[in-house]
Specification:
four-stranded mixed beta sheet, 4 strands
Length: 241
Amino acid sequence: ASNPYAEFNIFGDPFAAYQVFHAGIPVTLVPLDSTNTIPVNEEFFDVFQQQQETFEAQYCFKSLKIIRDNWFDNQFYTSYFMWDSFASGVAISIMSKADNFDGENDFAEMKYLNITVVTSNEPYGVRDGSNPFFDGRAVPKFNLEKGGVHSGHVQTGLQDPFCIVKGSDRGICQDGYTKEVAGPEAVQVLVAQEAKPNQDVHSPLNRQFFKSFLDVLNVHHPSGRFNFTTEFPFYREILYK
């Protein structure tokens, strides 16, 4: 990979992510390093298959089964993770607790880290046509500092020659990397470290989030309430031939 450091969502716009992290608002990050500790393993899949008591559970399981049955190799159970579901669960669990400044939650171990978002690559201040904030401008866009952390080479694509090291399959570009740093660039961010184990040691489910996920998905009370005709009274379907 030309950039083995960044996560895709931040890689899409590192500077925007940098602005959010440095805006002074509390930030909680659930990175891939943490979601990678909760793969959709075979035990979870089997239990899920047996617990489909609502339309929502049936829909979600069928969707998951389609993904598994069409996975590109035979490593589905070690390469497919809970990702957004886990991140949402961590966020909801944190918000459900009042005055929860340490991010205590039911599903993930949390830790404060001093990090920043890398937006360009060293050496800084070298204008090579890749950085629209500086190249061709007498005054950098957004009044950015000349020679500062935003003034280096910006990755122009997955095959950017600047990022590729000849004879190696590991590139050097770090655009979008949430990097642990010290000094004035550092921002204190609450970061999820790993998924918590299931408190029930006798359960086939090895993560606490698995149990909660299936419990909530199978609650009957709110099941099947969504309806296009009631949620969207002016919705209509027209078949053109």
